[in-house]
Amino acid sequence: MVCPFGDTHMIVIVNISTFKGVGHYIGRSTALGNFYTIEVGRTNAIEAYRRWLENELKTNRFGKAYRYFYFLKNEYYVNNGELTLVCHCTPLPCHGEVIAQFIKEGNL
User: Fold this and answer.
1) Which are the contacts of 71, defined by CB distance < 8 A and separation ≥ 6?
2) Distance CA 11, CA 107 (A)
3) pTM score, whole prediction
4) Element (H, E) at 15
5) Which of 9, 22, 34, 45 has the fewest CB atoms within 10 Å distance of its CB?
6) Cα 40 from Cα 102, distance rounded (Å)
7) What is the number of other CB atoms lying within 10 angstroms of the CB of residue 46?
8) Helices (H), strands (E): how many in the chain?
């Protein structure tokens, strides 16, 4: 899944099962993994994750999620606006889309 943001910068979200390149894993076992299960519905799980991540980035500046998020954000800018996120969900809706959006918005 590609998340374009109206310019030449791209954050690509790929499936770990089929991707053979280099990327940053954001699955459940990582600091940015979505621990909300799809048992509540994929959309609900992603929205719950969005609320959690936004709160985490604003209030827990010493947490693992904050550090990994800003590592990825730095990678994005160092690599001229290109970043590959690797997860199990894609091509289905994925919490990686939330991460991509927050990186691009830059207001957290």
Assistant:
1) none
2) 17
3) 0.88
4) strand 10-15
5) 22
6) 23
7) 19
8) 3, 4
The number of folded domains in the chain is: 1
User: Residues in the chain, how many?
Assistant: 108
Q: Are 82 and 7 in contact (CB under 8 A)?
A: no
Residue 63 is encoded by which pair of tokens?
């947490």
Among all chains, which residue has been given the structure tokens 């959006």? 101
One-letter amino acid for residue 24 of the chain = H
The 10s digit of each residue's pLDDT in 63-83 is 999 999 999 999 998 888 899
Burial of residue 8 (number of CB atoms within 10 Å: 0-12, 13-18, 19+): exposed
Residue 27 backbone zone (phi > 0: left; psi -120 to 50: alpha; other: beta): beta
